[in-house]
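hey so i finaly got around to running the thing on Aspartyl/glutamyl-tRNA(Asn/Gln) amidotransferase subunit B from Catellatospora methionotrophica. pasting the sequence first so u can double check i didnt mess up the copy paste, my clipboard has been acting weird all day
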Amino acid sequence: MSTNVLPTYDDVVSRYEPVIGLETHVELGTVTKMFCGCPTDFGAEPNTQVCPVCLGLPGSLPVANRAAIEATIRIGLALNCSIATWCRFARKNYFYPDMPKNYQISQYDEPLCVDGYLDVEVDGELVRIGIERVHLEEDTGKTLHVGGATGRIHGATESLVDYNRAGIPLVEIVTKPVPGLGARAPEIAKAYVAELRDVIRTLGVSDVRMEQGSMRCDVNTSLNLPGAEWGTRTETKNVNSLRSVERSVRTEMLRQAMVLDGGGTITQETRHFHEDTGDTTSGRSKETATDYRYFPEPDLVPLAPEPVWVEQLKAALPELPRQHRARLKTEWNLSDLDMQSILNAGAVELIERTVAAGASPEAARKWWLGELSRRANADGVELEAVGATPEQVAKLQVLVASGKLTDKLARQVLEGVLAGEGDPEQIMAARGLEVVSDTGALTAAIDEAIAANPEVAEKIRGGNQAAAGVLIGAVMKTTKGQADAKTVRELVLARLAS
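ok and heres what it spat out for the 3d tokens, dont ask me to read them lol
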């Protein structure tokens, strides 16, 4: 097979076995940075949240952030990890413009949390993803490439560096290699990141907003022939949505199969994922640990979390997502299939918040898994980014339940919500969409329809109630769809029975 011919996905999984691994970076929501007192507010003016410590100026000394250490231990406990009784920070040396010190304070061979797992449910089946390590480090700054068409360095005329992010506490969660997933590898990768995000959000240690970069995922993918050694992996960097995690695994499986089918070899490298096309392109050759010249950080003392403290943190963990979903399933009277549909859509929290805002579980599920999921899929965005809040959906449903809107009119109001026109009541009023409930106006429209269709009226008087649909349609046309069809039917039958 030519290396220029991309195989089908079914063909790839019939001949190759994928192995995946995920490295997820989570910015912690601490008030100050990891090793200094600078604030961590998102969106501040560039280079206004910096000091000699996070800029790495000579003579400055770091001091570890206790809140960040505690948050990392809580993440490790939630992921069933063992917590180290003694560990330390290390210097990871490499030169890059967004590293003001030219090294990163991280953890290497002595991480804070090790050997855990996270259970992920996919299509009713539980898949256990092993966790190699959870360690704490500092984030880098942010490089902005301007003057080009893509926002990347290639084609840019200049690059700008914002060091506000440099030094923010960053937790890295590294899975063990995950073989044996077959065709489900992309789907399970997405499900793992979604479950991990839910766990971290439940702990309250990060807002895990992937679109803002507070949660980023590096996706490792390799292929091997059945029974052969694992293949050479590539690392797709900084994937920033659940949908893109799935797409990046699939894309790399197809690309690597094409290379291998053509007699080529896979290069161990980092690759960039392109949201617009779903493709990956080569970044740089992948370094090994020795290239970073790790050595113990001389300016920080080792960490030795007291076992009593760790046990206190463990006892105070909140109800975790899997247990939470099991409780909601019972409270909402859902079947396994119903709950799986909600989970697959990433709608558990959205529906729960909609119910808390006043909608019934059934109505909330209808909107999020129906019209809103359809719009999210059409726009290629996550459901939570579709443009409506749970509170707005609940208000919309209240208008339907009160009879002020029909389902059809409610969908028109929802269009206005997604377009940013305001809350449902404002849009209903501005667009004049409220159900016509004035019986006088409806009676006049019914009389007009009867006069225009005397033969239909006679059929109804003769007992053929099915014929009422013609008159109901005429009334709905007169009222521009703003009458309640059930109410119109009742009035039509009552009018012709007299």
